[in-house]
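Handoff note, outgoing to incoming analyst
You'll be picking up this chain. Sequence as last confirmed:
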Amino acid sequence: MHIRTSFRCIVAFGALLLVACAPAPIYKTAPGTLAVLPAQVAQAPEHYGKAAVIWGGSVVGVRNFQDHSEIEILAYPLDGSQRPQPNTHGAGRFIAIVPGYLEPLSYPNGALITVSGQLDGSRASAVDQAAYVYPLVSVAQSHVWTPAEMRQGHPDIHFGVGVGVGIR
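Most recent structure output, in case you need it:
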């Protein structure tokens, strides 16, 4: 009985440590913020109006226009810290619209990004040869994640059996 109680305390303490290490979300989720994925919005954009969203994913490309820039993003579900989860299935594509000029080198292809903003309709276009409907998001805030930020809160603990040789 004493061993079970000790084991439960150790497990609870370990879980508490892991939760305490996870960074907080970067954007405050306002009441009415949609919890849907871009692929769902693309199927019926008229049903979602001008709702607030917090979406993220991997940068596909940046296009600059005279008065705004557009970031095409392959969406991924977000974790509790609003970091994109690139090891999951893509959740559709969307276009983030940002006022002014964006330096494309600051948003390289493959960079992970989270945006907070408001839906602003959709645009029919294509991905390669396939027809596609992109939800449009007028961006209020955006954050490009660094590799260190993506690792933060993920314990570097590995379990296994075997023999290994490391050379440095």
